[in-house]
Amino acid sequence: MPCWSLADKKPASANTLAARLARLGLRTDADYVLHLPLRYEDETRITAVRDAQPGVAAQFDVEVIDNEIAYRPRRQLVVRVSDASGTLTMRFLNFYPNQQKAMQVGARLRFFGELHEGYLGPEIIHPRFHVVGAGESLPECLTPVYPTTAGLGQATLRRLIARALDRADLTDTLPAALLERLGLPDFTAAIQRLHNPPPEMTQASLEARDYPAWRRVQFDELLAQQLSLRRAYTARRARGAPSLQATATLTTALLAALPFRLTGAQQRAWQEIASDLDQPHPMQRLLQGDVGSGKTVVAALAMLHAVEAGYQAALMAPTEILAEQHYRKLAAWLAPLGLEVAWLTGSLKKRGKEAVLAGIASGNTPIVIGTHALIEDKVEFARLGLAIVDEQHRFGVRQRLALKEKGLFAHQLAMSATPIPRTLAMSYYADLDVSVLDELPPGRTPVTTKLIAEGRRDQVVARVREACRAGGQAYWVCPLIEESETLQLKTAEETFARLTSDLPGQRVGLVHGRLKAAEKAAVMAAFVNNEIHVLVATTVIEVGVDVPNASLMVIEHAERFGLAQLHQLRGRVGRGAAQSACILLYAQPLGQLARARLKVIFESTDGFEIAREDLRLRGPGEFIGARQSGLPLLRYADLEDAALVEQARAVAEDMLRDAPEQAAAHLQRWLGGREELLKA
Ligand code: ADP
Ligand code: MG
Questions:
Q1: Span 352-368, pLDDT tens digits
Q2: One fold for 209-444+636-680 and 447-604
Q3: Which atom from ligand 1 is nearest to the alpha carbon of 298?
Q4: Ligand 1 atom index nearest CA of 262
Q5: Atom 12, ligand 1: which residue's CA is nearest?
Q6: Residue 290 Cα to ligand 1 middle (Å)
Q7: Has residue 61 got a pLDDT over 60?
Q8: Chain-centre distance for alpha carbon 224
Q9: Do the Cβ atoms of 385 and 240 come closer than 8 Å?
Q10: Phi (first) and psi of residue 229, to 5 degrees
Q11: Which CATH number does the domain 447-604 belong to among 3.50.50.60, 3.40.50.150, 3.40.50.720, 3.40.50.300?
Q12: Which pTM value belongs to this model?
């Protein structure tokens, strides 16, 4: 039994309680057992009012001496309390009538809170309090404070967790010898200590990340992740996929028709993919290559391989602009080979869409390019052999999962320009095979990057004018305004108007996310054909757009962009033979993080290096894009802890081979039914 108080003051109705618990992911006993405290509070001692320190949470036993509702300016309850040593003010901005009643003059209260120096002397805002019962004793150990959600009190959580601890199966999933080797405590001891700290524990040692009980929990969490990934990997290998026997007729024809030769890196990646496609189990490969390294042609070869073997291939891109661009490029490459390429996006008219869907369902359409419209329920492939996702990190976890289901028995290729740092590769992406394009096609001139303060905008406009007069083209990227899409659009329109008047004689175009797909496509086509010289754009052009004649990129308010975004944007230029430049216009004063980002992008053009810095500046959660999807990432462990990740990986492998039942129990405890989401 826990040594802190189990008294529950406010029973909640079962229905809303269940909903709140579900929001915290609390369903099974194991979920409660693993719902560990965020921090601890010391309620083992009473502090005399006179000894209260500003900024330090403490507990007081007092009597109410005054109690009034004040309006200054907001309605609030102000309660004066005292003990033998002095008096204090407690202030409640929200309160219930019954709380006010409990704090009537003369009531004996125990309250817990942090002292502030207020306008009228020392005060405590919103302390936690209860009426002291006769003979009520103090808890003997620190009180855990759990992560919670609105309307769910700590007392309720504590009671539920205590109950779960009493009846849950806490059997260790790891053998004692292994724990000894790793220097970790056994599971029951670790968990009990974290929920019910022994009386002698101090707050500082208990909250330290390397407290052995926390190490055990972190290890277990990483182990669960590794087990899940390895199991997915094995399951995939056990699942059948068509062995795609290529004839090389189409791929040879494409290679012969291309105006360039594959780089060594492209050659290697293509061979790795081709040999995967021959296998009777699904490929799951990531093709990783910096912007401009030429991933598209490798994707085209892979698709042709599938088609030669009598199967269909699909390519999914994260935006309409990008999907359209792939479509144009692939159609141009493949039409001469007598292959029809279909195109499927959400903005297709009903009739057109039905025709495309029919072609996909009958198998008459060998190759289809599209957006996430491809993973809608209505889309049924006759014989999908290969599914490719471009810029896969831009898709949400749920979309990736949907694609996985659609292509369950198909080979899968993901492409990304954002290299995965090592610790992430070992964890979230551990069940992927990776091919790397570590070489850019020849004849590229490196892009020069310039940082220019907003005040010198005129010089930048002059530079754009010059570049266009010399026959070049330029992108002008408008500031990102995260808070308001409307405002962002307004800014883009203003920039467009301003540049149109600043650059007489040049055709200026505007493309942004609110345009209809057909309008967007028309603007992009005009830019590709050099009928538009300066393209004013919001970040819709961030990924993949390929216009080799554009050699100048201006990014306004570059300080607002993330590193990966800046790198992607800059990658839009330097695609042709002309010397290219990227001008980062920034507004002062620069914040610390913005300064750090601009320094990285100025000093490096290496995508790997930039990704590493990005991970360092932002943390892994944002990096894998899971944060916005609301999925639980690692709760206790830290991916930066590479040594622990390595250990977990090694143990996972042994465990699956030697102790599959324990492995299953461990997974059940940690992931319950959520395993699918982690694998996406
Ligand atoms: P990314 O990897 O960023 O998707 P793309 O596939 O769009 O790059 O390729 C960038 C440009 O380089 C395209 O214009 C493409 O046709 C061209 N390209 C690809 N491979 C080669 C090569 N081996 N030699 C010359 N140009 C190439
Ligand atoms: Mg690309």
A1: 999 999 999 999 999 99
A2: yes
A3: 6
A4: 23
A5: 294
A6: 11
A7: yes
A8: 20
A9: no
A10: -65, -45
A11: 3.40.50.300
A12: 0.67
